[in-house]
Amino acid sequence: MNRAQSSLSLFRVGLWDALPIAASYILFGAIFGMMALQAGLTSWESVAMSIFVYSGAAQFSAISMLADHAGMWAILITTVLLNTRHFLMGLSLSPYYQRFSFGQVTGLAFYLTDEQYAVTLNRFRHYPSQLPYILGVSLSLHTAWICGTWIGTVAGQWIPDPAALGLGFSFTAMFLALAYYQLTSWLRILTFVMCGVLAVYLSLLLPNGLHLLIAGLVAFGVGYLLPDPKISIPPQTADAAAKGVESA
Amino acid sequence: MNLFWLYVLMSILTYVSRRAFLSLPDHWLSPRMRSGLSYIPVGIFAALIFPSLFASEQQWVFQPVPLVASAVCLLVMAFSKNVFLSFGVSLGLVVLVSVGIL
Q1: Of A69, A85, A164, B26, which is most buried by a Cβ count within 10 Å?
Q2: What average pLDDT does range A176-191 have in this prediction?
Q3: Is the domain of A158 the same as that of A196?
């Protein structure tokens, strides 16, 4: 019973921590739904894409390319390029997923988005990686994305333009606030700025997504070549779990 | 185009990229490897943040409002250590300027 309550409590904390991003997901999902209709998809086809593909960048690119009558292989190659960043995200999460079974990791992998990565990684700084928490974050974001898409397909004409309201900044604001916790030494700050400058330069030259992969690889190289003595095994003990819950 | 197969293949490609390295064998995770892995978020966050501030549609841009809001976001984080507050204050600032209230 206590275990069940604890799981429920962790699930709720996950939902709560994901709330600001879930709100943005609804809005941007609605924009996607609206654009998908304009590209010629039906309401159900748009929602199905959000349910099964669940990748904002790939979905926006795909409908834009569908509207331009691009071929399937062109869309699939773009999807691969946009998704290369997930290789490194998965790699950096792997120490925290060691405690999960093969089946659990296989299930959780579906929900690995940029925002889920940012929110859960922030949690893992102080607490063990716990399945109910990750599920709380993941399911709320996926649900928000699906609901947003559906809203966009049925009420697209009433959706405000996020750019006009400045809401495009919402993801940047969340990433910045969460990145703050990563900047714990001068070397990390320097790496952050260096990778940022490199990413801006590369984003002007390369297809979407590759600049993230390269910036992540450069940062990995810095950490590998100049090992940080303070890096330890992530807290996975019962003591750490017993500390309770913490919002992001 | 057959949307069914497009969705199936997009889903598989996206899923495989997410699943591929999510579980590594224990013996791969040496202290040096862990240090390298701990730096990946620094690079990923930088690559998510900087281009959104300085690049748009493959062009260099200078956007004072998001830049000031970003500074505010980091300052609020430094003083409050509260992600929600930093997110809300900085986003609120951009929204107020965008709708012409500030």
Answers
A1: A85
A2: 93
A3: no
B56 strand-pairing partners: B59
Question: Would you state the structure tokens that stand for residue B59, as one six-digit string?
Answer: 């062009």
pLDDT band of residue A208 (cuts 50, 70, 90) is low
Beta strands in chain B (DSSP E): 55-56, 59-60
d(CA B9, CA A183): 38
Q: What is the pLDDT along chain B (102 residues), one digit of tens a residue?
A: 789 999 999 999 999 999 999 988 777 778 888 899 889 999 989 998 999 999 988 889 999 999 999 999 999 999 998 888 998 999 999 999 998 887
Cβ contact A95:A109 at 8 Å: no
Question: Cβ contacts (< 8 Å) between B32 and chain A: which residues?
Answer: 224, 227
Mean pLDDT over each residue of chain A, to the nearest integer: 86
In a domain, A189, yes or no: yes
Residues A150 and A196 both lie in one domain: no
Q: How far is A107 from chain B (nearest CA, A)?
A: 9
First CA to last CA across chain A, in angstroms?
Answer: 26
User: Residue B88 corresponds to which tokens in the numbers above?
Assistant: 């809300």
pLDDT tens-digit readout, A119-152 = 999 999 889 999 999 999 999 999 999 999 999 9
Residues of chain B with Cβ-Cβ distance to A226 below 8 Å are: 35
**A244: closest CA of chain B, how far (Å):** 18
Rg (CA), chain B: 20
Model pLDDT, residue A31: 85
The pLDDT of residue A78:
85
ipTM of the complex: 0.90
Number of domains in chain A: 2
- A97 at interface of B, judged by CB pairs closer than 8 A: yes
Chain B residues with beta carbon closer than 8 angstroms to that of A205: 58
Q: Domain check: are A142 and A206 in the same one?
A: no
Asked if residue A171 is part of any domain, the answer here is no
Structural domain includes residue A89: yes
| Statement to judge: residues A49 and A99 lie in one domain | yes
Within a domain: A35? yes
The number of residues in chain B equals 102
A165–B91 C-beta distance less than 8 A? no
Same domain, A194 and A99: no
